[in-house]
Amino acid sequence: MLAFVIRRVGQSILVLLIVGLVAFSMFRFVGDPIDNMLGQERTIEDVERLRAQLGLDQPFPVQYFRFLEGAIQGNFGVSYRQGREVSEILLERAPATLELAFVSGVLAIAIGIMLGVFTAIRRNGATAHIIMAASLIGVSLPTFLIGILLIYLFSVELGWLPSFGRGETVSIGDWWTTGFLTESGRKALILPAITLGLYQMTLIMRLVRSEMLEVLRQDYIRFARARGLKERAVNFHHALKNTMVPVVTVIGLQLGAIIAFAIITETVFQWPGVGLLFINAIQFVDIPVMAAYLMLISVMFVGINLLVDILYVFIDPRLRVDRTGGHS
Amino acid sequence: MTTPVLSIRNLSVEIPTRQGILKPVDRVSYDIAAGEILGVVGESGAGKSMAGNAVIGLLNRPAHIAGGEIRLNGARIDPLEGEEMRRMRGKEIGMIFQDPLTSLNPLLTIGDQLTETMLTHLPIGRKEAEKRAVAALDEVGIPGAKERIDSYPHEFSGGMRQRVVIALALCAEPSLVIADEPTTALDVSVQAQIIALLKRLCRERGTAVMLITHDMGVIAEAADRVAVMYAGRLAELGPVREVLTEPRHPYTHGLMASTPLASQGQTRLHQIPGSMPKLNYMPDGCAFHPRCPRAADKCRTAPAPTLTDGRAACWFPMVTEAAE
Amino acid sequence: MKRTIFAFLASTVVALPVGAAEFTWAETTDPQTMDPHAVNSTPVLGFLNNVYEGLVRRGKDMSVEPALATDWEPIGDGEGWRFTLREGVTFHDGAEFNADDVIFSYERASDEGSDTRSWFAPISEVVKVDDYTVDFMTSAPNPIFPSSIANWMIMDSGWAEANNATLPDKENGNYATINANGTGAFKVTAREPGLRTELMPHDGWWGDVEHNITKATLTPIQNPATALAALLSGDVDFINPVPIQDVARLQSDPDVNVIQGIEARIIMLGFPHEADALKYSAETSDKNPFADVRVRQAVAHAVNVPAILQTTMRGNAEPASQLVSPAMNGYSEGLSERPAYDPEKAKALLAEAGYPDGFSFGLKCPNNRYLNDEAVCQAITGMLAQVGITATLDAMPVQNYWPELRADNYDMYLLGWSPGTFDAEHPIRFLAATPNEEKKLGSWNFGGFSNARVDELLPMIQSEIDADKRQAMLDETAKILQDEVAYVPLYVQPLVWGTRSNIELTQRPDNFFILRWVTVN
Amino acid sequence: MTDTQTNQAAPPEAVDKSLWQDFRESDFFYAFKRSPVALVSFAVVCILVLSAVFAPLIAPTNPFDPASLNLMNGFTPPLEPNAFTGDAFLMGTDDQGRDVFSTILYGMRISLFVGASAVLFAMVLGITLGLVSGYFGGWTETIIMRVADVQLTFPSILVAMLIFGIAKGFTPVEYRDQMAIWVLILAIGLSDWVQFARVVRGATLVEKSKDYVAAARLIGRSPWAIMLKHILPNALSPVLVIATISLALAIIAEATLSFLGVGAPPTQPSLGTLIRIGQGFLFSGEWWILFFPACTLLALALSVNLLGDWLRDALNPRLR
């Protein structure tokens, strides 16, 4: 068990290094930060001086090395655009994204599993068919369009919910801000969370359904039925638990995807999270912010992956004794 | 004569398909008395498992009971549905599946699975259920039952798991147990032990057993009576010794000829030419006639007689001189 | 749950009149710094105009008026300018304003690391005469100096020194990047970069208060549709800009008003004057057709500007004939006709230049810099194709755009130019003068347009004090640029602001949003 | 693809019949005929694909030819004559005066081409890597599966932006219009291969342990022959299902990327680009610029998804 965790952590670090390299090499193609930092009356000389100041005249490997060196110490440099520590900015923005991701994740998982189980149990029922078909509409339109349509309907036409932002937030501790504690904060969460969670919800629902159908035709389910266990017990105690094994993996991956896809939702709703920060950073070629964001995402993702693997062991007793490096 | 535990009369199961209605079980009748073990044999697809599933109410849609009746301890159970049928299962009818590896939920301890079943059917508390679970494991011969109660299925060997399955099937003390190929998936060395266990438990408790198998050896060892099925129909029914030694139906005969009784291995029917017809390509007349060495014109046109009295559903049953 | 919702609704209804003088507005970009000397861009200077003040400022009609200086006059025969400072002005933190702050701010703003440095290129020396008098000595006569420093903002020297912000730091930022301490009508009370900046009135402000705002909040919203939705749903009181296609919709909505004007920015097409060959042509890779003035004229005639204004700009923009708009100082009244849309003439000119069958080339265009920039380029592509020259359009975000232009990777490009000085001299210096690094000329003249007479006229324009003589020289330059088709000016970019109908405000052509002219009714 | 499918789904006694007959009598086809959802979505997909393929014949104008456009036709509502030119259009015109109907047809070609090619690319890549990692195991497997992890770390959007940027650096501008499309294919394909690889690897692991594979290995058949002939057919059903669903996803992904500014060029818009452009006119009353492309995309993606859903159930004999 310990050896397994150590090995996975090692692999994770390797993954992070590669991500760092790829991420960093990508910035060279995003654009040139200089023009955004200087006004229209700048001279060529100003451009060259600033370039040297930022170390952009250095060869690529040197830049990467300098970045890594800082990153190891948790120092991602200073944002070109905001002139503040990147780690500080990220920390400031992270709660917004995490809260949004959390709510949409919970929404997606709870409703997704519920509907998935329902459609699997009532496999041939009309309601199940309608749910299945309706869920596809959610994945047949691009997220940004769904967001804009929601805004149009609920903010502009009906005026029920705010069209952008996070509403009022309350500070907790040194750096965490939450929108959960105010009415406007909770209201502001609804539309973005639906937009972001819809796709994942559909995905989870469909996955749960197919896994559940697969489980439901297993011998042990028939055996459980043959023992006269109540339908509820068969479906939830026996079938759902087995369904969760593969589902947990995918949900883990989806959590990462939620944070990544938050980029789009945050852009549409002007949600002040790291995704919006990243899009802005791209627009202004704020390399330190971009690099740090990608590293943050990777760390989160690798972390979630690791957690999922461990959770796996927790759910499935077969894996507790020994685990061969299989990965499904 | 006392009421048999299970009484099946003219049971038919149908599956509507686009090629027409298939009849995997066609007008089958038999009884099982308390403490009696009825062996049901036949090739795969002969309808023996389907009949068992019909009894316990676990037919997969669109298969359904199309005719006849099933009585348990004298009461009809075939019209029961949903909740009523569920209460019968486990409580009145237990079932044992073929593969102990897949019959147990891998994510729950065997203790959980046992207590859950007992709590569902018996008016007892958790404490009592746990106590009984240990006793049940003990009874099926799991050493160190008290400690193993919290083990997961994968921590047991195949034979041990089948013992757990038997404990599970019997834990609510049903009056009928349907054992669907209970030994097929097991090592040869373990098979006999499991059969012996099953036999002992049923004798002790007076449980009726429907022992579904394709293995004549198992039948010979465990069953009191035997029902031979072919293509959904009952071909022959009688006390095991008589059927085995003096088969009257040509199919049973062929079956016996292909089965050295001493063998514990898998039965193969090389000796009967051809193969069992598919349900959607049923020949006219007796279903067995294309393979039957004794087939006459009548067999080709008239459906085989329904077995009511007499032992074999055959126009020209074999006479006893074959034996002895 | 239901109860809390009702309770909330009730509370908002009650809260509304109380918050009537609170004001929230949204712009596309957040000011990237609070340091008035670090970045010379409209979002920064426009916002900071509410917080900091200069010696002079621009009024509602763009005219220069006294601010921290009450008076100014030339010294001798064009040797410099003397500014008399306003007395009794205090910074937001309570410090007194005096000549030391002016000297300090001059040094700070003209530092090597400052983006506003070029404003002080004509200055040779700044002299403190007394606590409320400062002399700015120029190396040559400079008639427009006072108006060229309308955006130069005065910072308190004591505050800057105490907070270690004596120089702007673009790279790492410093205290002044997120904090502000000016003399303006509003002070920054909260700042979350990229999210929210909160302003409150400065109680000790020297001027007459016209506004009735108690608190103002700026929220950047990048996505135009989101900003529009926020305005329509009443989440914000003001947005800038309104997407041009939505003007009609807003006009029909009784709850919102559209305020339209003409921006100082001219949108134009640029050419690779110096290039030897086209870069992105399938068949004409050995020569540069755009070096021929007839081809450039053909382009000018081929582009149907009225159609672009009618359709893409929805009738919200004016055609342009020069590098500055009529609202700018030094505009040449006599040259206000732009070449007529005449595809036949364009074809004839092309044939005359030796391209009867046209040619193909690459058109570069930004897609997030100017209003509807990509749609305009697309329309131009179609119009040029109709006279036989087929462009491959390559539209990209502005962060990739400038590097491409700097690397000469274009055959034709779209450019917008807004003269920071509101004077016709500005674009000549940056766009028309032969590029010369040493003299800091032509730094945005990507195509390397070069005309000896223009180069000769520029320094004369810069130092001419007589307004008529200066205008004559500007007219001559404008004529040359028109004849040579150095650029093809297309139209003046419109300014479209949207407000809730209970808001009154004043729009200035420089696209600065001045909070002290806002009234919430 | 269909052929393989037919063979698998057909009853064995029908081998001597022609493929078509074979197909018509298969359970697969029977189930298909019986499912209204499958029939309708198949019909919709067919109509859309055909109209995309034959767009030049159906479309009244060629929206990709800039010389044919009249800007003054811009923003004409559906079936109403334009105020200046008097021209009328079935679905109106967009901001450039392009006939929306024609643009949708042409745009769908690009969307379908991008979607299909991306899925094909992902499929080939995924199947190859899946087979290799499942069959050879060991380090090869570890590396491939770790790469898959890394790959999953990067949201497809970022992958696309990365590839876009790099490719841009290498492509001459006259090819950039086409480049955008190839880059989209590459980007979407690269972010999609993992699923295929995982499924195929799973199937390979199962099949590898079977006797016939061992036998084939013993008689010295090459690994590739074994993988392609014996192992791959066993994984085809799930691969086909994933491919269908991925096609819908790829079409949507293209739209999303276009929203972020790395999509098809506006002069040759895909459905996604049309929607991106159209959403700017949502509030201004020119609903048709967004509405028709969005409906087309919805119809296309929805029917492909429904078809994929149905396929999943139909091809999984255990669920039948």
UniProtKB/TrEMBL annotation, chain A:
GO terms for biological process: transmembrane transport. It is found in: Cell membrane. The keyword RNA-binding does not apply. SUPFAM superfamilies: MetI-like. Its main location: membrane. Keywords: Cell membrane, Membrane, Transmembrane, Transmembrane helix, Transport. Gene3D superfamilies: MetI-like (1.10.3720.10). InterPro entries: BPD_transp_1_N (IPR045621), MetI-like (IPR000515), MetI-like_sf (IPR035906). Residues 94-308 form the ABC transmembrane type-1 domain. The chain crosses the membrane at residues 12-30, 100-121, 133-154, 189-208, 247-271, 291-315. The keyword Transmembrane helix applies. Pfam families: BPD_transp_1 (PF00528), BPD_transp_1_N (PF19300). It is a multi-pass membrane protein. GO terms for cellular component: plasma membrane. PANTHER family: ABC TRANSPORTER PERMEASE PROTEIN, DIPEPTIDE TRANSPORT SYSTEM PERMEASE PROTEIN DPPB-RELATED. Belongs to the binding-protein-dependent transport system permease family. This is ABC transporter permease subunit. It comes from Oceanomicrobium pacificus. The lineage of its organism: Bacteria, Pseudomonadati, Pseudomonadota, Alphaproteobacteria, Rhodobacterales.
From TrEMBL, chain B:
Belongs to the ABC transporter superfamily. PANTHER family: DIPEPTIDE TRANSPORT ATP-BINDING PROTEIN DPPD, OLIGOPEPTIDE TRANSPORT ATP-BINDING PROTEIN APPD. Its main location: membrane. SUPFAM superfamilies: P-loop containing nucleoside triphosphate hydrolases. It comes from Oceanomicrobium pacificus. NCBIfam families: oligo_HPY. It is found in: Cell inner membrane. The keyword Metal-binding does not apply. GO terms for cellular component: plasma membrane. The keyword Transport applies. It is a peripheral membrane protein. Keywords: ATP-binding, Cell membrane, Membrane, Nucleotide-binding, Transport. This is ATP-binding cassette domain-containing protein. GO terms for molecular function: ATP binding; ATP hydrolysis activity. Residues 6-256 form the ABC transporter domain. GO terms for biological process: peptide transport; transmembrane transport.
TrEMBL record, chain C:
Residues 1-20 form the signal peptide. Gene3D superfamilies: Dipeptide-binding Protein, Domain 1 (3.90.76.10), Dipeptide-binding Protein, Domain 3 (3.10.105.10), Periplasmic binding protein-like II (3.40.190.10). It is found in: Periplasm. It holds the Pfam family SBP_bac_5. GO terms for biological process: peptide transport. Its main location: periplasm. GO terms for cellular component: ATP-binding cassette (ABC) transporter complex; outer membrane-bounded periplasmic space. The keyword Signal applies. GO terms for molecular function: peptide transmembrane transporter activity. Residues 64-429 form the Solute-binding protein family domain. Keywords: Signal, Transport. The keyword Acetylation does not apply. Belongs to the bacterial solute-binding protein 5 family. This is ABC transporter substrate-binding protein. It comes from Oceanomicrobium pacificus. The lineage of its organism: Bacteria, Pseudomonadati, Pseudomonadota, Alphaproteobacteria, Rhodobacterales.
TrEMBL record, chain D:
It is found in: Cell membrane. Coiled coil: none annotated. The chain crosses the membrane at residues 37-59, 110-136, 148-167, 179-200, 231-253, 287-311. Residues 108-308 form the ABC transmembrane type-1 domain. It is a multi-pass membrane protein. Pfam families: BPD_transp_1, OppC_N. GO terms for cellular component: plasma membrane. GO terms for biological process: transmembrane transport. InterPro entries: BP-dependent_transpt_permease, MetI-like, MetI-like_sf, OppC_N. Its main location: membrane. Keywords: Cell membrane, Membrane, Transmembrane, Transmembrane helix, Transport. Belongs to the binding-protein-dependent transport system permease family. PANTHER family: ABC TRANSPORTER PERMEASE PROTEIN, OLIGOPEPTIDE TRANSPORT SYSTEM PERMEASE PROTEIN APPC. This is ABC transporter permease subunit. It comes from Oceanomicrobium pacificus.
